[in-house]
Amino acid sequence: MPITFNIIPRKNIQKPQDPQKYYADIVGNGKTTMDDLAKYAASVSTVSKGDVLVVLETIFTKIADDVADGKIVYVGEYFTLQAGGSSEGKETAEEVTSASIKSVKAIFRPGRLIKNALKLAAFQKK
Question: Nearest 5°: CA angle at 49, between 47 and 68?
Answer without folding.
Answer: 100
